[in-house]
Amino acid sequence: MSIIMDRSALGRYADCPHQASLCIKHNIPLNDRLPVGGVLGHDVIDKAFKKHCIDQPDGGKVYELDKVAQTVVDELPKTRPDLSKDVVEGCKYAGDVIAGLANIPIVGVEMQTEATITPEEFKEKLGFITDQTVTITQCFDLVQYGTNSLHYRDWKTGYKKRTRADAEEEFQSACGAWLLMRNYDGVKTTADGQILPKIDTIHVWYHELRWRTTAYARFDRSSEDPAQSHLTTFKLLEYRILSAAKLWLEGSDEAWPEPKKCGFCSAVTKCKLADWTIKEVADNPSKYVDCYVAIKAKSTAMYKALKSFHQGYGRIEGSEVAFDWKPSPKYIPKIMPKVNKGPVDEDIDSFFK
After folding, report:
1. Number of domains the chain is built from
2. What is the band of 232 on the pLDDT scale with cuts at 50, 70, 90?
């Protein structure tokens, strides 16, 4: 029996095994950091594609992209009365992107793709002994054909803004490119027996709706690492995916703190490093740095929670200080003395910004 490893869950092990184990232990959902508007935006786009899909006699599908685009723009504002302007504007941007894709053949929408890793493959490629068979899966928002290439598009509705380097580094990019290359190898077939063409290039596009920007990454199957000429892009991607699966199977609980990772971690408030008792730096400098990164991210998450609570209920009294806002053009609540409304200590206060 194969163990199913979804890309999102597997990505947690690739980023930080401790995060992954905490999310399993505390049942933290994969999309718990996704804004409500983002969930609705994905849903509207998905329904628009389904609404304007025409089934063909040969089993294929044709999408009326101009109608899909207009439906996305028209329907999102109707979903909730409290959607922010940037969410609505983001879906207008999505509509513009979709309308501009009209002449590019579509392979699939919300396309579920998978690959199975056998115990023999784990042993051959990683030297890892296991009796488990693993199936790695990923759902692609939109996949289109290019010239000996596939274009994989993903609608991003969160606050993260990516550079090209970020897009190339993301586990989602690596896993998606590897899955598409592995399936489109000129040998594997579709359910109805058609051979899938060999695809050598994967273009990854992250359409960041909240920012109205696009981040791009490209993966070429046979490109070689300049430092290690025997390692092609495909092999490097494969090692990355299999190594993450190995961590999952081993039940790894290692913590790998980095500012970017901790800043977007769903489990940072439960992190073992964020609960570390303060000690002298000289006692364990390496761990001190790791803990500082995790504690700072935890503090940021706590500040955001306090700010959200303050917006709904106002001033929050602590034992010696209060969390409140001194009216000004920008809404930035701070730690303040209970007696007056001035900020306490700028050095301490700036830590929570």
Report:
1. 2
2. very high
Q: Which residue bears the tokens 């939109």? A: 142
Other CB atoms within 10 A of residue 177 CB:
27
Q: Are 266 and 19 in contact (CB under 8 A)?
A: yes
pLDDT digits 0-9 by tens, 76-108: 888 877 677 777 788 889 999 999 998 889 999
Fill in the amino acid letter for 11.
G
Question: Is the same domain home to 277 and 231?
Answer: no
- pLDDT at 23 (0 to 100): 92
Q: Which two tokens stand for residue 61?
A: 């599908």
**Residues ≥6 apart with Cβ < 8 Å to 32:** 266
- CB contact at 8 A, 49 and 110: yes
What's the pTM value of the predicted model, to 2 decimals? 0.79
The span from the CA of 137 to the CA of 43, in Å, is 20
Residue 174 sits at the vertex; the CA angle it makes with 108 and 137, to the nearest 5 degrees, is 50
Strand, coil or helix: 328: coil
Strand 149-156 versus strand 133-146 pairing type? antiparallel
Residue where the block lists tokens 């990454």: 217
Phi, psi (rounded to 5 degrees) for 97 = -65, -50
Domain assignment present for 93: no
| 228: its two tokens | 């290690």
DSSP H helices in 149-265: 164-169, 171-183, 233-250, 259-263
Q: Residue with structure tokens 């550079």?
A: 163
21 plus 160 within the same structural domain = yes
Kindly state the tokens that stand for 99. Answer: 């309308």
- Return the axis-axis angle of helices 36-51 and 85-99, rounded to nearest 10°: 30
DSSP letters, 74-141, are: HHGGGT-TT--HHHHHHHHHHHHHHHTTTTS-EEEEEEEEEEEE-HHHHHHHH----S-EEEEEEEEE
